[in-house]
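RECORD TYPE: protein structure
NAME: Bacteriophage HK97-gp10 tail-component
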Amino acid sequence: MTLELRMGVDGVGRVEARFDDLGDKAANPGPLWERLYAGFLGAERSRFDTRGYGHWRPILPATSRRKIARGQDPRTLRATGALYRSLTSRGAPGSVYRTTSSSVIFGSSLDQAIYQQGGEGRRDRPVIVLSRRMKKQFAQTIDEWMKS
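PREDICTED:
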């Protein structure tokens, strides 16, 4: 008894054209970077609005009272709003969005972001987390972009 496997491609022209399309897209990923960045900004808004999807330790009542007395936003990680804006608003002070032909970087350059993300301070309120939801959203965005 023998087993024979054969592989062939129907519509070679269509396959070649599709590879050409993919090559063109890979040479100009700017539109993909923009879509991923927009998704990141939205995910960060959700993270702040839900206190880290419920994972950030709540602020103490005394801290809330002190913030209110100072005229600050009493919500978690929003005393001045600078950290929130740097992670949720394109072009805000501290907001990072850099691209090359092969990479994209986004986040915040503010000291508060570095501290909260896991620097020298407490690490109980990370501001950037690649959750399963975000990874799935990024994968879907990439897939849609590749097919467009």
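COMMENT: The chain has one domain: 14-56+82-147.
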